Amino acid sequence: MRIFSFTILSAILFTFFSPLSIAIDTISVTQSINENSTLVSEYGRFELGFFSPGSSTYRYVGIWYKDIPVKTVVWVANRQNPINDSSGTLMINRTGHVVLLGQKSTVVWSASPTESVQAPILQLLDTGNLVLRNEKDENSENYLWQSFDYPTDTLLPGMKLGWDLRTGLERRLVSWKSPDDPSPGDFAWGITLHSYPESETWKGSNKYFRDGPWNGIRFSGAPELQSNPLFNFKLVSNKNEVYYIFYLKNETAKSRMVVNQTNGYIRIRYAWNSGTQSWEVFASVPRDTCDTYGLCGAYGNCIIGESPVCQCLTGFKPKGNFIDWSQGCVRNKPFDCQDKHSSGFVKIRGLKLPDTTYTWANASVNLKECKARCLSNCSCTGYTNTNISGGGSGCAMWFGDLIDIREFQDGGQDLYVRIHASELGANSERKVKIVVVVLAVIFVVCGMILVAHYIRKIRATRGLEDNIETIARTTNQNNGAQTNNLEALFFDLDKIVEATSNFSSNNKLGEGGFGPVYKGTLEDGQEIAVKRFSKSSGQGQNEFKNEVILIAKLQHRNLVKLLGYCLQGEEKILIYEYMPNKSLDFFIFDQTKSELLDWSKRYHIICGIARGLLYLHQDSRLRIIHRDIKASNILLDNEMNPKISDFGMAKTFGGDESEGNTKRVVGTYGYMAPEYAIDGLFSMKSDVFSFGILLLEIISGKKNRGFYHLDHSQNLIGHAWRLWKEGRLMELINPCFKDTSNLSEVLRSIHIGLLCVQEHPEDRPSMSYVVVMLGSESTLPQPKQPGFSLDKTNVAANSSPKKSESSSTNEITVTLLEPR
Ligand SMILES: *[C@@H]1O[C@H](CO)[C@@H](O)[C@H](O)[C@H]1NC(C)=O
Ligand SMILES: *[C@@H]1O[C@H](CO)[C@@H](O)[C@H](O)[C@H]1NC(C)=O
Ligand SMILES: *[C@@H]1O[C@H](CO)[C@@H](O)[C@H](O)[C@H]1NC(C)=O
Ligand SMILES: *[C@@H]1O[C@H](CO)[C@@H](O)[C@H](O)[C@H]1NC(C)=O
Ligand SMILES: *[C@@H]1O[C@H](CO)[C@@H](O)[C@H](O)[C@H]1NC(C)=O
Ligand SMILES: *[C@@H]1O[C@H](CO)[C@@H](O)[C@H](O)[C@H]1NC(C)=O
Ligand SMILES: *[C@@H]1O[C@H](CO)[C@@H](O)[C@H](O)[C@H]1NC(C)=O
Ligand SMILES: *[C@@H]1O[C@H](CO)[C@@H](O)[C@H](O)[C@H]1NC(C)=O
């Protein structure tokens, strides 16, 4: 009786006072949620109620974070059946179904309990899970229904993605159609139940991107997430369930994974930054061209940094021409299956494993047995371990074509690919070669020992030992040990403090736009460059984020490699490989150092920068515009290979976009394209412009800004243009390499430089054309009038009147606000 009247009373209270209602997390059969009420989880982390997404006026029931200011919906009940007025009511009906009633009390959405119980209640948990349970089952996870089993586009910590094999339930994420419309869109992410299960993302019914199968510690196609500061994850696979799940390392953090089609990235992991009170992208796919499903076709291997990115596996050759890679590769020599000795396996390292649709896997078969089984089955094309930890165990065999393979610089896996035995001949040949080499080495070493012995007895043996140690170490590195390959990018502050002797001024290399750069040495002797963002620099925040997010994903031999980052308290630090030769400007603008760079070195540098830019513009999936190409951002390693650095200003573009407009013009005077400096319009062609300036600077040894000529007051471009028109290009060449034998190459490079700095972006060549022109001897088009080639006075009048005085320092990257 008391319970009854209490229920009545609370129902009355609920009805009358719900706008001011004390937050409740539970409703029972007699209660309901309407436009004027919500459910709030016990500790206030999540809220359930009615909402309208974006600019839509339709009403939906959803769950969102309660304790952050940015409304972030993580689940939607009636995603396909919106309610068009405020009549919606969510309740438990008398048979224990959760029903959402719309106009005229029609059922627009419902959820059925697995069994009927006397007194079911609907509760919103602090995990973001909406559960229907027996009132008495307070602490059990014996839910009659739960929203975690019916995800929309968001995966929360503790939520399972995948299969319950006992009930046949599949949980997969499906994107919203648009930010205004939560109904199911084109993209979906789930786990496929092949013999060797894998994680896949689809566009409609086509595969779009594979994370690949689980290899015991991570997905084969996502080595970079193996250890990260934010979350732990695993794939559970047993006879009852196959699912992916993640947990936060720190429960107070917030992170979610979303499948979103309106974004250049399809699957994004966000992390909540409580400092800036905003969501930040922590990781996302696809990362680059090579993530495109099956890009290189059968037996093709996608390698970022190679040109073309598609290469055939050992023992295979391109099937079609070199332009259309989708046809993939075919065997150099087919093998005869009946003859056991006609085929063998080549071990290919560092891969994302191929599509597992036609596979057979068994965790208790070892690699040797696996090989034997594969050999004895005609359709088996390859095999490998299913579990790479602890030295490797388990067996997976592939049948039919091997599709969607890519290579990773770090953290890939080995795959044993079946090829004709004579192709392995290369191997036995190699063995002979190895024997020969070893004998030669022994011979030479013996000779050396004898000679050395003559001079100094003891040191010779020591040297040999060292030698062997080095060889052993190198071999070890190549022999798998993938587990150690990719330590988290996250560095501990203590480690950095130690490496730089507490940011000692002796170790300071220079001062960048956002703070000092130090040299450091890690415990293992590796030299690093440490970029420490000044604490006061408010802008540094964005640049730091941008740089970490972008560059961690980029891999190319002409881009500087990020080794790690550190974000601790107020410290924002980036760690790069150390470049002993500093940057290009130290060489080309300095009279004495200039002598060190002959034309062939300069040409090597020019081509390297061009390839690096091409990669940014085209070969990485998201088009990237660097926006700050200049001599001081081109670093040089010990072999004088150029590496593009400083991605703080870079912009990414998804899909078909290729230009943007910004109110905040960033870049460096003297390198900025006119349309960008004046109108804030940036595109790949504005990078091409900067590249052209750089090219002219490398050849002339003069800075575009600060260029001074006795005869006339023009900048470097204007000067070059005048010399071009007067047929006196020779005068532009820096005297220190004027006597090169390859003058035609130099003149051709100036010509290309002039094509790059043409006034109208549409006249400038793309980077891919630049690379082609640099590498061939074809006739080049005539350049038109360059941009910013006018007299200095005119340039000033031409450009923005709001250009601020303080930003005119030559070498410092400037930021202009509102150029118009
Ligand atoms: C919600 O509250 C408003 C104002 O108090 C009232 O006019 C409206 O009828 C209420 N709606 C429902 C569905 O109770
Ligand atoms: C709302 O939906 C109902 C049922 O679908 C329909 O009859 C009604 O015309 C709609 N009202 C408006 C304003 O669109
Ligand atoms: C409760 O809702 C379900 C689903 O709409 C329906 O099948 C069932 O008949 C309803 N029960 C009652 C008592 O209305
Ligand atoms: C979790 O994060 C909070 C807030 O950032 C921090 O105060 C707390 O120390 C962290 N806890 C652990 C165990 O790291
Ligand atoms: C998807 O991406 C778009 C564009 O970034 C954003 O406006 C929208 O809120 C995202 N949707 C979800 C559900 O995160
Ligand atoms: C896996 O292999 C073991 C040993 O060969 C065998 O006992 C077991 O039945 C196999 N399991 C499956 C699922 O095939
Ligand atoms: C080879 O393996 C496939 C897939 O498991 C199987 O269907 C086929 O029967 C096997 N063939 C032989 C000859 O064992
Ligand atoms: C993989 O192998 C390691 C070490 O042998 C073992 O501890 C782990 O449980 C295995 N993982 C799976 C998923 O079988």
From TrEMBL:
Q: Where is this region: Disordered?
A: 780-820
So which residues are the signal peptide here? 1-23
Q: Which reaction does it catalyse?
A: L-seryl-[protein] + ATP = O-phospho-L-seryl-[protein] + ADP + H(+); L-threonyl-[protein] + ATP = O-phospho-L-threonyl-[protein] + ADP + H(+)
EC code: 2.7.11.1
- What kind of membrane protein is this, topologically? Single-pass type I membrane protein
Protein name per Swiss-Prot or TrEMBL:
Receptor-like serine/threonine-protein kinase
Q: Which domain of life is it from?
A: Eukaryota
Q: Which controlled-vocabulary keywords does the entry list?
A: ATP-binding, Disulfide bond, Glycoprotein, Kinase, Membrane, Nucleotide-binding, Serine/threonine-protein kinase, Signal, Transferase, Transmembrane, Transmembrane helix
Subcellular localization, per the record?
Answer: Membrane
Q: Which residues form the Protein kinase domain?
A: 503-780
Q: Where in this chain does the record put each Bulb-type lectin domain?
A: 24-145
Write down the PANTHER family for this protein, in alphabetical order.
Answer: BULB-TYPE LECTIN DOMAIN-CONTAINING PROTEIN, RECEPTOR-LIKE SERINE_THREONINE-PROTEIN KINASE
Q: Which family does it belong to?
A: Belongs to the protein kinase superfamily. Ser/Thr protein kinase family.
For this protein, the record's SMART domains field holds: B_lectin, PAN_AP, S_TKc
In its UniProt entry, the species of origin is given as Ziziphus jujuba (Chinese jujube)
Q: Does the keyword Translocase apply?
A: no
> InterPro entries given for it?
Bulb-type_lectin_dom, Bulb-type_lectin_dom_sf, Kinase-like_dom_sf, Pan_app, Prot_kinase_dom, S-locus_recpt_kinase_C, S_locus_glycoprot_dom, Ser-Thr/Tyr_kinase_cat_dom
Transmembrane domains' residue ranges: 434-455
Domain Apple: residue ranges: 337-420
